[in-house]
Specification:
single chain; 313 residues; FAD/NAD(P)-binding domain; 2 domains; seven-stranded mixed beta sheet; 23% helix; binds NADP nicotinamide-adenine-dinucleotide phosphate
Length: 313
Amino acid sequence: MDAAMGAKLIIIGTGPAGYTAAIYAARADLEPLVFAGNQLGGQLTTTTEVENFPGFPEGILGPDLMFAMGQQAEKFGAKTIYEEVLSVTREEETGLFVVSSHAAAYKAAAVIVATGATARYLGLPGEKELIGHGLTACATCDGSFYRDVPVCVVGGGDSACEEAHFLTRFASKVYLLHRRDTLRASKAMQQRVLSHEKIAPVWNAVIAEYKRDADGELCGVVLRDTQTGKLSDLAVKCVFMAIGHSPNSGIVRDLVDIDSSGFIITQNNATATKTPGLFAAGDVADPVYRQAISAAGMGCRAALEAERYFLTL
Ligand code: NAP
């Protein structure tokens, strides 16, 4: 691409980290361009009630929270660009970053990467073809399609429990498949799920195979007992995957250090990466906490660090 559009600061991602960084950066007159990516508002837009974000004693819907954050950032002058970033490079002579989408190339003196993480699947044969045909990682998006039929959720963390509980609104039965016999989820979440009459935990179980009907839709799974190796059938119309997320760090792979799970390694417990002017915040750089509020906190720190970086230029 020839002519690249210029900006002081580019923020990649519109989750809690990206939009918080945008609020702080816009108020500091850094006029940030904020790239929405393929999921405007990030992962919270695929959840329902958020009960642990401070300031909302009655809880708030994830999409509403993200809409409000976006509005707050734009009120101070942040500009949302509805494009997905494909690559980030740095020009040797100028030190400027070149952020390229399918539509254009944008140059900026500093970049905050807040690209979050993407749902993981098991990697079983035929899995990709089943996504959208009885296999999904988003109960909020797809749960209402499976009314009065049995479904299952895979995983033992907070996400799996939250999804299972949400699905009781629609499904006739929700099997919670976990590879161990103890949930990883918080005690409050465990209690809510294990006491629900529609939720049946299936301990020490993993999916060995997906079964499809003549139309190619999922109609059940073959389970393998992780203790005995015994196989059994479970008839379900949909599998909701909730086994964690992989950080979306690929677009800056050449500019940052990455740990064995793909998380961006930041310097000295802050948000700076090994490339001057490139900062990382939120789930893409946080293998430990991965909460909306901790991502927002990192977004704030990234913007403040970017602001200080501009003083050194
Ligand atoms: P997570 O805590 O990493 O849990 C992933 C679950 O999937 C674990 O139970 C794990 O089993 C299981 N798993 C992983 N790989 C698997 C595989 N290949 N086959 C079968 N099972 C597999 O992920 P998460 O639930 O998405 O939560 C991520 C973070 O967000 C956590 O810090 C969580 O507390 C937080 N979160 C909070 C809330 C809330 O507070 N409302 C809601 C959602 C998420 P093992 O237990 O055996 O490892």
